[in-house]
Design goal:
Layout lengths: L1 H4 L4 H20 L8 H44 L6 H22 L6 H18 L5 H26 L4 H29 L5 H26 L20
Helix pairs in contact: 2-7, 2-8, 3-4, 3-6, 3-7, 3-8, 4-5, 5-6, 7-8
Length: 248
């Protein structure tokens, strides 16, 4: 049940209150007009759907970058562990450093973020070790390991960019303003339509239509807000960061 209630927050109650007050005012003052709702639908639905699609696309990109980051880090560790000229003590130390990179990235992306510089420093430590030991490896093996380490660094920067840069804030603000205005514009128009159809005797029809439609819009907006940061482990659609941890 919790996953269904998570779309409800203070914005939901604000917009429902606006809808209820507007409906009461409309009924008491017999306020109505004939207004086509196509324009207001375009003004809200189009940018809202665009924002949701953009946020979902960012989430899918994050999954792609994290999967590539993890697979590259596993390959780097496997290649280093297979090098005969590296001592067991060094192998254990570099494995610990590799695990630290994975742990740091999860810490940075999670709900209590650590500085990005810590993630970069841990990754550069492993990269520097590879460069220092490249003379003790075969040329092809050294180039492959460095190539995979490049994928690790790329994964860190790409996921950091997704975390720090969101979908356009101006569009979100625009959507929220029009969602708050929506019941004020929508309810008198619906009241006119109901009277034309002979349903004006039941005020609860107007209350229900106004509150249901505004609840749908604000719920979609809340879903988009939750998708904005797919790493914070708040929404039900967030990235499961534990899936990308490296095993000890």
């Amino acid at each position: 049940m919790e996953k269904y209630l998570i779309i409800i927050n203070w914005r939901t109650f604000v917009v429902l209150a606006i809808s209820a007050v507007t409906t009461h005012f409309t009924l008491v003052n017999n306020f109505q007009y004939n207004f086509g709702l196509t324009m207001i639908s375009i003004a809200i639905i189009f940018p809202l759907v665009f924002s949701i699609k953009s946020a979902f696309r960012r989430r899918e990109k994050a999954l792609e970058h994290l999967a590539r980051f993890r697979s590259a880090l596993i390959t780097v560790n496997a290649c280093l562990q297979s090098q005969p000229k590296i001592s067991e003590e060094e192998k254990a130390a570099v494995k610990a450093d590799i695990l630290a990179v994975s742990k740091s990235l999860r810490g940075y992306l999670g709900p209590d973020p650590i500085p990005l510089e810590k993630v970069r420093a841990d990754a550069i430590k492993v990269s520097s070790y590879i460069q220092q030991r490249s003379s003790h490896m075969k040329y092809n093996a050294s180039m492959k390991i460095q190539g995979f380490m490049g994928d690790v660094l790329s994964g860190i920067e790409n996921t950091a960019a997704i975390k720090e840069h969101r979908t356009p804030a101006s569009i979100r603000a625009y959507c929220l303003v029009f969602i708050y205005l929506y019941p004020i514009i929508y309810i008198p128009s619906v009241y006119f339509t109901l009277q034309e159809g002979g349903s004006e005797s039941n005020p609860w029809i107007l209350y229900s239509l106004g509150m249901i439609s505004t609840f749908i819009l604000i719920s979609l907006f809340n879903v988009q807000i939750q998708l904005e940061n797919p790493f914070d482990q708040v929404g039900v659609d967030d990235v499961k960061l534990e899936m990308f941890d490296l095993n000890e």
